[in-house]
Amino acid sequence: MFFFETARTKYHVETENTETRPDESELVGLAQRGDEDAFVELAKRYRPKVWSTASRFARSRAELEDLTQDLFLKIWKGIPGYRADSPFENWLMTVTVRGCYDFLRKHRRRRETETLVDPQESREARDETTERDQNRRDAWEAVQVLLSHLNAKDRTIITLLDLEERGVRETARLTGWSESNVKVRAHRARKKMKTIFEELGMES
Amino acid sequence: MKEENSMEHLFEKAKEILPFGEAGEFGFETRLRAAMADASLGFSETIARFSWRFSFAVLPVAIGIAVFLAFQQHGVLPEGLGGLMVQWSQYFPVEI
Q1: Nearest-CA neighbor of B29 among A124, A37, A58, A18?
Q2: Any residues with CB less than 8 A from the CB of B11 and at least 6 apart, and which?
């Protein structure tokens, strides 16, 4: 009885999965022909990944919500141009990263004059987190200070390499810049951040 | 201790956190669908959305057309409201 039940349950789950989750390539094809429902389903599937990458570029949750929506709108507009010679996720993340870079460039002047982190949000987060989480949050805020001294291109590269843990080749593919350009810029940016890190006495 | 306080260590700790938490589900689909609908507006719908902005431009254009027609029809601009009424009375639906 136990085995029977287990097998039945497993079968049921598998059937449900194939029924409720259409194939990705099918969804992409439908979305390319303008099917909004198919695109929304794709957006729901990839939202955590886009959100995670975009969160490294935004300074508040509200800004992140707007940025994520703008990115999905770019993906929606660009999806007819997607060619299936590379995985859909690669193409989607390329649009995401380039969208984040555009976002940094557009908001550069505003970012220089405004505070780095929404103080209210930061305070709320502080109340809810443990000491370990708080250390991570403090580290993140310190990293934001360092990154704010870089230009949009260098900041995008350092974010992808050092925060997203992507390799040089992948970073080059996502940004559309050459591998040597990524390496040279990363080297210079790290050197610059190191100087600022020491000048601000962050090591203490 | 040196390692503990290095910049690399700072990045190591920073990448362990999603600074604004997980993506919430609430309202995402609604807002995305609204944005997609806005993005796929046709020409006439786009013009219609901004029609109130054009209303300020309509009055000077109407005056310009009226002046142009007056010159075309009569070769002279009307004097005051009375002159305007006389000049355009032929177009009125009722006799004045």
Answers
A1: A37
A2: A139, A143, A162, A163
Cβ contact A194:B8 at 8 Å = no
SS3 B53: helix
B50: three-class secondary structure by DSSP: coil
Which residue, among A73, A67, A79, has the nearest Cα to A103 in the 3D structure? A67
Q: What is the pLDDT along chain A (204 residues), one digit of tens a residue?
A: 444 444 334 333 344 444 567 788 999 999 999 899 999 999 999 999 999 999 999 988 999 999 999 999 999 999 999 988 889 999 999 999 999 999 999 887 555 555 455 545 555 555 556 777 788 888 999 999 999 999 999 999 999 999 999 999 999 999 999 999 999 999 999 999 999 999 888 765
pTM of the model: 0.70
Q: Any CB–CB contact under 8 A between A201 and chain B?
A: no
Neighbour count for residue A196 (Cβ, 10 Å): 16
Residues contacting residue A152 through CB under 8 Å, at least 6 positions apart: A101, A104, A105, A108
Q: Nearest by CB to B32, which of A69, A139, A143? A: A69
Rounded to the nearest 10 degrees, what angle do helices A36-54 and A61-78 cross at?
Answer: 140
- Nearest Cβ partner of B32 from A72, A140, A202? A72
